[in-house]
Amino acid sequence: MAIEAALAAHRFGLGANQADLTNASSDPRGWLKWQLGSVDPALQAFAANKRSGDILRELPGQVDQLKGTAEGKKKIQEMGRDMFLGEMRPWMKNAFETKVPFLERLVWFWSNHFTISIQKARLIYFAGTYEREAIRPNVLGSFEDLLFASVRHPAMQLYLDNAFSIGPNSRAGKFTGKGLNENHAREILELHTLGVDGGYGQDDVIALAKILTGWSIERGDQVDNATGFKFFENRHEPGAKVLLGKTYSENGEREGTDALRDLARHPATARHVATKFARHFIADEPPPQAVARLERVYHATGGDLRALSLAIVDEPAAWNRQLMKVRTPIEYVVAAVRLLGGVRETLGDEQFKGLAESLRIMGQIPFTASSPKGWPDVASAWAGPAAIMERAQWAHVLASRIPQKPDPVRLGEMGLGALLSATTRAALERAADATQGLALLIASPEFQRR
Amino acid sequence: MTLDRRTLIQSAAGAFVLGVDAPRFSFAATPGDRRLIVIILRGAMDGLASVPPHGDADYARVRGALALSRGQGGIVDLDGSFGLHPALGTLKTFWDQKQLAVVHAVASPYRDRSHFDGQNVIETGALRPNGLPDGWLNRAMGPLGINDPKHALAIAQSVPVILQGRRDVSSWMPAQLPQVDDDFIARLKVLYANDPLFRGALDNAIDVDAVANASGAPMDPNAMRGARGYRFEPLARMAGNLIAAADGPTITVLEVSGWDTHQAQGTTEGRLNYVLGDFDKGLKALADAVRPIWDRTAILAFTEFGRTAAPNGSGGTDHGTASAAFIVGGAVNGGRVIAQWPGLHSLYEGRDLAPTTDLRAVFKGVLGDHMRIARTQLDATFPDSTNVAPVSGLIKT
């Protein structure tokens, strides 16, 4: 039981926190399932933040006013940075303190599945709103709703360019001479639904791009809803489209919802999602039987993500005592902060900057993935020689900056529970001083794995 | 303190600074010690923008708003048929010195248009995505006789697929945190003894750090951002210092991203111009840093596929097929664009530059002529490629 409590906290949660281990101790699976019935505290914590509709209404005017001068341009940059940091601070604080860490992991998983990235500059205004509006409310709903929310959100519309895709034979297309941009359509098929081996071809990419023409965003005073999404009939490519052998006759915006629903329910999507889900919680190369079981649940429930989340809790392979996964830098930093007692009251400027800098050095600032594929979910991407040395250095810096140093052995027992190995315990006991001991604990394989 | 290899090398470097002749590894001094630097251009570089075929009668028509002008500030002519994007000034200098060869209309065997599968194919050297479990540079380590992991180096936080495989390799990034003391390292080794992944990574990092320390590569985090916010340029300079150091790597992999220009690609301004500028300045920094071994160096830069010949609906280009590859270096037999030019009048699937040269032929040409790997071993390094003849004449004889 003790080991299962530790696995619940580490593999399914955000790592070591005394409260987590206590809560998980009597009934690890029950604790995880209880989280799936809880309200995401972040939805409330972020309730006062701007919605993307507000941003689209206000921002273009502000930018137009400022962009004429060098000083104005600088101001625009600062605005973006401030908005992003304003989102990131409560995001990190929530990760350090949440009592429903499994739920937060699900948010991160789906946020990564439907990646957007501020590497595309204008996304800096929407990174926070995207996760809050499109991902967070839908992680325990149906995959279909999550897909719709992602496709329609301004962040995704801008990230994968669908906002600029115009049917060449639409009224707008004929007038402007502009045409299709197939970027979003391709990634929906390849990354978000069917998967790269899901049995689609270039014709299907073009068909879906045509189907989604007109799905775009509004700006300025024209914004009339909370997200800023708008369907522009005059950009929509007219005529029937054939996607995966099925004909979608001309039906405006409904073509897109119909096609996305069919994609969400496609067997290839069930397989793709089940594989990624199993890879995230079980192992880089998840056992095929486990994938098959998750796939059946997805299929039987029509892509019910609560059912999928319950299924991973009940999946025997997910309770393997061997720690197969290496934590990503975000998971690693969050687990270390939770181990050391979280962040008291407010997340101070210096702490926040330090942690953001830590994530930058380790190569994983939230919402900065380098491609629409999102962050890699395998150890080979995060545990190369340079990365492992960096983590060791980071553990050392972190340990040296803790003002009142707890006893490393006791902290290890508390935080890792039954996962603490004899080798690590011996190293902690033999450490030259508390700083070195804490650094070794944070750099230990069992703390870097989950 | 344990007197491990790291300590030894550091002491040696220290002695050198004090003016005492430090023992050097003999490897770097071996005649014929040839170096290969591979640069993966991730995101699909537009070959028609970087090496515009301005002599093609259909060029201006097909490229539309993305066509570069031929006048002042536009295309830099190479041979009357092909030119360089004006942001590639360093490459033009290498061209004039006959140290740049371009292979155009080149593509891997992969014909779909996924970045991730496309990159997998150019890195594994397989016929299809995930067709081979390891990277072709890792397989080439056998015939190259590279046994020391630090002689196969990725300048990256994690080892890219091209270098992954059976043989241990290294990765390195400039240190941005204070280095840990040897005692801590010794204890970590004990901690990682039962975890092969962590143990192997740590051992490799220690070896490469020693080379980096000896190379004098600047470790100032502020050095990581160059003029105009360039990322590749400062990294390339540090990588160059490391490569040129005593006992530096035989093969090195670098990466440049930012090529996925779906929107607002631009011509002489805009996103692509910026990425090309960073790449070009990075090549200069790299070449300057490896000056002492330049004559023995070849740099091979390539991308997973090209982009559509015509602009898309939003001033950019979508995923295409053939692109261009660059071979630069003192060892290169340059001043030539090598292409069986398919012409822009007849596009692949009506949209992309048609591929006429297999990228594997370029890889084999460079590995064969520059790194002196025999044809049979090249064919073993690239399974299913016996019918793909190496591109010959890329390297000076």
Please tell me about this protein's structure.
Chain A has 450 residues and is an all-alpha fold. Among the domains of chain A are: 160-264, no CATH class; 329-448, no CATH class. Chain A is 59% helix and 3% strand. Chain A has helices at residues 2-12, 18-25, 28-36, 41-45, 52-66, 70-97, 101-113, 127-135, 143-152, 154-159, 171-176, 183-192, 202-211, 253-264, 267-281, 288-300, 305-313, 329-339, 349-362, 379-382, 385-401, 408-416, 422-430, 434-443, 445-448, and strands spanning 215-217, 229-231, 241-243, 246-248. A two-stranded antiparallel ribbon of chain A has the order 1-2. In chain A, strand 3 (241-243) and strand 4 form a beta hairpin. In chain A, helix 1 crosses helix 2 (18-25), helix 3 (28-36) runs antiparallel to helix 17 (305-313) and helix 6 packs across helix 18 (329-339). Chain B has one domain: Alkaline Phosphatase, subunit A. Chain B contains twelve helices and eleven strands. In chain B, helix 1 packs parallel to helix 8 (196-215). The N and C termini of chain B lie far apart (50 Å). Classes of the chains: A mainly alpha (450), B alpha/beta (397). Chains A and B meet through helix 12, helix 20, helix 21, helix 23 and helix 24 of A and helix 5, strand 6, helix 7 and helix 8 of B.
The radius of gyration computed from the alpha-carbon positions of chain A, rounded to a whole number of angstroms, is 23 Å
> Helical element count of chain A?
25
Within the largest sheet of chain A, what's the order of strands?
Answer: 1-2
Classify the beta-strand content of chain A into a percent band: under 5%
* Main beta-sheet strand count, sense and barrel state of chain A: 2 strands, antiparallel
What are the segments of chain B in which pLDDT stays under 50 over at least 5 consecutive residues? 1-31
Cα Rg of chain B: 21 Å
Number of strand elements of chain A: 4
Helix-strand category of chain B:
alpha/beta
- How do the SSEs of chain B run, as a string of H and E? HEHHEEHEHHEEHHHEHEEEEHH
Note the total helix count of chain B: 12
Helix content of chain B: 25-40%
CATH topology of chain B: Alkaline Phosphatase, subunit A
Which structural class do the helices and strands of chain A define? mainly alpha
Measured between the Cα atoms of the first and last residue of chain B, the distance is 50 Å
Residue stretches of chain A low in confidence (pLDDT < 50, at least 5 long) are none
- CATH architecture descriptor name of chain B: 3-Layer(aba) Sandwich
How would the global form of chain B be characterised? globular
Strand content of chain B: 5-15%
Estimate the global geometry of chain A from the Cα principal axes. globular
Oligomer: heterodimer
